[in-house]
C-alpha cells in the first residue's frame, strides 16, 4: 500500500504556526472545485437537455456499445446543448442555472442534489489527472514549505465497523507541509457505474466507466509518517458513490483506511491501490493553461477570504449586493444558502468552535 516516510522537518505544532499562512486543504479544495467546475471549457455555456438512465434517450440516438451494453440500472446519460455565442455571458456555470429555460421531462423534476451529481459527473470525466495537476499548480504558486491543515473524520475501525472505540465519528486535525503530498496512481477494474456525457453541437461524447480505468489521487501525511489521508477531487465521476463525508461533499477527503476498504469497492469490482505508483510530480495536462488560471484565481480568493468569504459547501462567492449566511456557532464559516449549510453541517460540526 502507498506510504513510506521522507527526511522532512519534525512535526509541526498547531500552536506554533501562523494561522494566516496555513492552507486548509478541505477549504481550498472547495474553492478549486468551484473555480474549475464553473468555467470548465468542455461544458462552458452548456445547458442540460436530457438525462437518461434505465430508459433510452428521447432526444438523441445513442449507438455506442459502452452505453447499449451497460446495465440500465447502473448508467447515466447526460445531454448538453451549448448556447449560441450571442446569449453567452460571464456568469459562472452552476447546477442551479444548468437546466434549459423549457426543461425536458427527464430534467424537470430533478432535485438540487441530483442536478449537482449530473453537473459533476460530466465535468469530472477524465478528471483525476486534471485535478491532481490543478492542485500541483496551486502549490507551485506558494513557498515550498507552506504549512497545510488536514481535517477529516476519524477512520472507521473496519474490524468492528466502528470509529475507534465508539461508532461516533471524531474530528482528526493536524498541520503538515505542502511538500509532504504524494500523487498516487492506480487502476480501477470493472467500474460499477457508466456515465455518458454528450455535448451538442460539438458532437462530443465523454464516457466514464471503462473496464480498466486509470485513477489518480493525492495522499497527505504527517511529517516522517506514511500517507494517512486521501484527497480525490474527481470522485463524482463515479456518481453518488463519489460524494464525500456523509454523502454530501463534491469530493472525497478521508482517511486512507476508509478510502481503500469502503470507497474504492463502491467505484469498481477491484483495484490496484496496494501496488499503486507513488510520485512527487505529474506531467502537464492537456488543458494546462486553463488549470493554471484556475489555480491563480483560487489563490487570490483564498488570500482575500477575510474580505470576501466563500460558501464552505460549494465555494461560491457572495452574490452581488447580498451577504452570506454565517454559522451561528463559530461565526467563522459562511454559506450561500440554507440548503448548503445543512449539507455542510455533518462535516462542519466536527470542527465548529462553538
From TrEMBL:
InterPro entries: Znf_MYND (IPR002893). The keyword ATP-binding does not apply. Keywords: Metal-binding, Zinc, Zinc-finger. The keyword Heme does not apply. SUPFAM superfamilies: HIT/MYND zinc finger-like. It comes from the Eukaryota. Residues 311-352 form the MYND-type domain. Pfam families: zf-MYND (PF01753). One of its GO terms (molecular function) is zinc ion binding. This is MYND-type domain-containing protein.
Amino acid at each position: 500500500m502507498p506510504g513510506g516516510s521522507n527526511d522532512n522537518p519534525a512535526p509541526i505544532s498547531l500552536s506554533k504556526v501562523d494561522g494566516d499562512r496555513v492552507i486548509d486543504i478541505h477549504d481550498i479544495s472547495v474553492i478549486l472545485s468551484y473555480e474549475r467546475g464553473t468555467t470548465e471549457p468542455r461544458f462552458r455555456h452548456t445547458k442540460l437537455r436530457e438525462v437518461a438512465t434505465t430508459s433510452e434517450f428521447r432526444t438523441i440516438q445513442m449507438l455506442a456499445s459502452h452505453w447499449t451494453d451497460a446495465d440500465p440500472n447502473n448508467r447515466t446519460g447526460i445531454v448538453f446543448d451549448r448556447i449560441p455565442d450571442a446569449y453567452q455571458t460571464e456568469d459562472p456555470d452552476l447546477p442551479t442555472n444548468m437546466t434549459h429555460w423549457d426543461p425536458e421531462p427527464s430534467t424537470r423534476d430533478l432535485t438540487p442534489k441530483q442536478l449537482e451529481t449530473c453537473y459533476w459527473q460530466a465535468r469530472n470525466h477524465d478528471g483525476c489527472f486534471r485535478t491532481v495537476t490543478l492542485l500541483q499548480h496551486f502549490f507551485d504558486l506558494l513557498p515550498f514549505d507552506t504549512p497545510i491543515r488536514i481535517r477529516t473524520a476519524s477512520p472507521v475501525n473496519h474490524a468492528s465497523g466502528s470509529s475507534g472505540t465508539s461508532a461516533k465519528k471524531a474530528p482528526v486535525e493536524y498541520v503538515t507541509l505542502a511538500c509532504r503530498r504524494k500523487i498516487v496512481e492506480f487502476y480501477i477494474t470493472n467500474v460499477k457505474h457508466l456515465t455518458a456525457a454528450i455535448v451538442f453541437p460539438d458532437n462530443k461524447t465523454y464516457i466514464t466507466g471503462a473496464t480498466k480505468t486509470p485513477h489518480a489521487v493525492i495522499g497527505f501525511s504527517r511529517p516522517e509518517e506514511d500517507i494517512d489521508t486521501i484527497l480525490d477531487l474527481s470522485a463524482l465521476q463515479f456518481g453518488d458513490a463519489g460524494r464525500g463525508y456523509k454523502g454530501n461533499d463534491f469530493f472525497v477527503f478521508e482517511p486512507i483506511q476508509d478510502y481503500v476498504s469502503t470507497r474504492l469497492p463502491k467505484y469498481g469490482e477491484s483495484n490496484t491501490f496496494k501496488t499503486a505508483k507513488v510520485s512527487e510530480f505529474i506531467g502537464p495536462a492537456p488543458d494546462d493553461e486553463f488549470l493554471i488560471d484556475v489555480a491563480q484565481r483560487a489563490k487570490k480568493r483564498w488570500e482575500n477570504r477575510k474580505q470576501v468569504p466563500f460558501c464552505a459547501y460549494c465555494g461560491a462567492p457572495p452574490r452581488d449586493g447580498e451577504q452570506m449566511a454565517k454559522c451561528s456557532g463559530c461565526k467563522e464559516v459562511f454559506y450561500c444558502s440554507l440548503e448548503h449549510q445543512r449539507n455542510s453541517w455533518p462535516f462542519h460540526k466536527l470542527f465548529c468552535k462553538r
